[in-house]
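We now fix the convention by which a protein and its fold are recorded. Here is one such record, which you should read through line by line:

>
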Amino acid sequence: MIEEILDRTIQGVTEPFICRGDDGQVYFVKGRSAGRRSLVCEWVASQVATALGLPIAGYVVAEVPEQLLAYKVRPDLGDLGSGLVFASRQLPHVQELSLTTRDLVPPELARDVLIFDWWVRNEDRHLTARGGNPNLLWDVAADELVVIDHNQAFDRDFRPGHFLESHVFADYWNEVFGDHDLRATYVGRMETVLRLLDSMRASIPSSWWWVDDGVPADVSWDELLGVLTRCRQPDFWNIP
């Protein structure tokens, strides 16, 4: 349960609110303005990342009570809305991944992030010498990578060429593409994740499938399932 609205970020497309939960933790919260599709995609992609073993920041489905919005502590609370929201836990001692800290990421983990993003069609992980937003954090205290933000996963306009030009870990693509055994290992890991899809589907709040009474959201489970199961296709690794 969200108990306090502290602030709102100005970064990212969704500009999440910064809130405190009843567990005492601070969260980045995405609600009404993020859109139903965004919430569903982020929730599913986050669970896929967890099942794949990526070091993702803790996340939950939280509830914003209507009475909290009644206090009108901000003029933009309509963007948050009441009801069930996506909440990602704020971590101490982190900074946005840079070109310098990128080189500290273990190669195996860098590969995993790259292949995960390829799998879920998440093109929103850019970082080159010209800059970008990798949607990755570096935990300065623990010297560890932290993965965040998957609201743009399952991108209908996914561009494989652009993905490999600008992804923060694009340099690892040829290592995977050129190794049949490594590709087979990844597909095996993906199959393990696919066995969890029924529970992932059941965990999606029913309200997220609807924009309003009788108006379905612009997303379907069949669409997400189609993206995730394409790893079984022989052309999964091909660049059109």
